[in-house]
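Octanoyltransferase LipM
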Amino acid sequence: MKTKWYFINSGPCSPSYNMALDEALLDLHSRGEIPPVIRFYEWNPATLSVGYFQRAEKEIDFDKLKAQKIGFVRRPTGGRAVLHEHELTYSVIVTEQYPDMPATVTEAYRVLSEGLLLGFQNLGLNAYFSVPDSEEKLLDLKKPKSAVCFDAPSWYELVVEGKKVAGSAQTRQKGVILQHGAILLDLDEDKLLSVFKFPSEEAKEKMRTKLPEKAVAINRIADRRITIEECVVAFKKGFEDALNIELIPYELTDSQKDFVKELEKTKYLTDEWNFRK
């Protein structure tokens, strides 16, 4: 018998709602009201999300965000800034006590990301995990060089056709793991670079030349156009096979929806949260 997890495909949602729903699911799971969950979602409008520890004012050009009508939200997870536009975002919510779930962040990340690995393979792409192979790379991990999320290798980097494609971040609260990340279909480098503050034009150009080595969108490497719908099917099956689970479509109850809205209003829509650093 496969363990049953809930599956939610939210489609395009606002930045504040996306983060509120992820946190609400973590909370509901911690209270035993729902089993583990895998959720897929998109962003409307295109949104820049920053990591929990990032200093937004220092690194982000908010005038450029406003001018391009790009949304903004702070995530409950670490990591750096990500532009969410042409992508499928996933989140996994599961207790730390789940059978065979490794205790360390690194190992748990590898287990949960196995679903992504199989998802990419289901799309016909050559995907594998790369592990840091030198002292220098290990040091790099401890001292990230820039604000742009895709500009750093990390443990068990998910590599597809030789490039990094899915940036993931994790938090643990109330005994529950929340891991979420972006599956990039297309990437607008100009838009991404336009919203960061750089010390000089040289620094910006340097980042521009490095981006294609670091982050690659699926549609740059696939031999055909891949849609969000295809990704949903491929990655849903990937997670089911990797975790040996059955995903059951789930609709939130009215009281659960109210809980999400309240969390959104009191936290993810507030300046206190979004500009706290």
